[in-house]
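Session log. Operator J.P. requested a structure for one protein chain; no other inputs attached. Running the standard single-chain path with token output.
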Amino acid sequence: MAEPVPAAVPNATDSNGTEVLNATAKFVATPEGTALAYGSLVVMALLPIFFGALRSVTCSKSKELGDGGYDSGFRNSADAPETITSRDAARFPIIASCTLFGLYLFFKVFSQEYINLLLSVYFFVLGVLALSHTMSPAMARIFPESFPNKQYQLLFTQGSGESKEEIVNYEFDTKNLVCLVLSSVVGVWYLLKKHWIANNVFGLAFALNGVELLHLNNVSTGCILLGGLFVYDVFWVFGTNVMVTVAKSFEAPIKLVFPQDLLEKGLGASNFAMLGLGDIVIPGIFIALLLRFDVSLKKNSRTYFVSSFLAYIFGLGLTIFVMHTFKHAQPALLYLVPACVGFPVVVALCKGELTEMFRWVTMATARY
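Structure written below.
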């Protein structure tokens, strides 16, 4: 978990209020340890964006074909992509601000220990489900065809006769149960030890699921969302101490961490550099949208996906550079948003496809 950061050590803060990069007060990282930590965080950030974007294409195609959703875990409406409209995008920064300030008040009024206990249980359940969903496609390929894969259904209803209403309706099979058991082992490990590896496993699962299942309906909506969160991030980082306070108090796998003292202390290291999931998922869903746009062009090229993916690497690298140069906290979306939006727009201008890019709308524009 993140510890208080001394004034002499810089840190960046993400759109969820998580401190992106920091170190504890009495530890001075070696150049090798710093490079390993920051490099590992960059690689870990790229993995869910890359694979989540690829899975979002498959997910979108499956939905457009009307097959009831992407079979990558429980076959339910919960696995179907959630489409973000322009109205959703415009409201999101306001909702995020209210949530952030609400958490700030909770930590000021109530005991931090009890709040984090409730959050741990909550994220344990979410983490197990997210990891199970992430693992399912790979596990389906691993099991032989002769594996006895039985189908199950978990159904809860309310009322009787014509007034009967479904509360829960989950369909799953034996392979899904195996994934759920394995995910639960990781969940118990995280719940009991709060080990940084378990934290990262859950964090990567959350990020990949977010990029895969949160679909922007068009590029304009993406620009509205990223623009709004750009202002949100800058305001709450530079204008108040709310985001930093929540970041230091909030104990949950909403960040990826990597120890800067790994070379000295091994897996028991405790001085972490951090990257918030908001700085992965928010640009990630825009990058995934551009990959789906590439696919819609049917030109066998991935120009916009590649340009936005490289833009993300550039923006994240710039965040780290500015942080160390000015020795001051930086909102990461301040650099990621202009890069991830600007690079593809410039490419579209050069190719004469800017109008086409902004007019393109995904086939699935309704909420599932």
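Operator note: Residues 1-12, 15-19, 67-74 have pLDDT under 50 and may be disordered.
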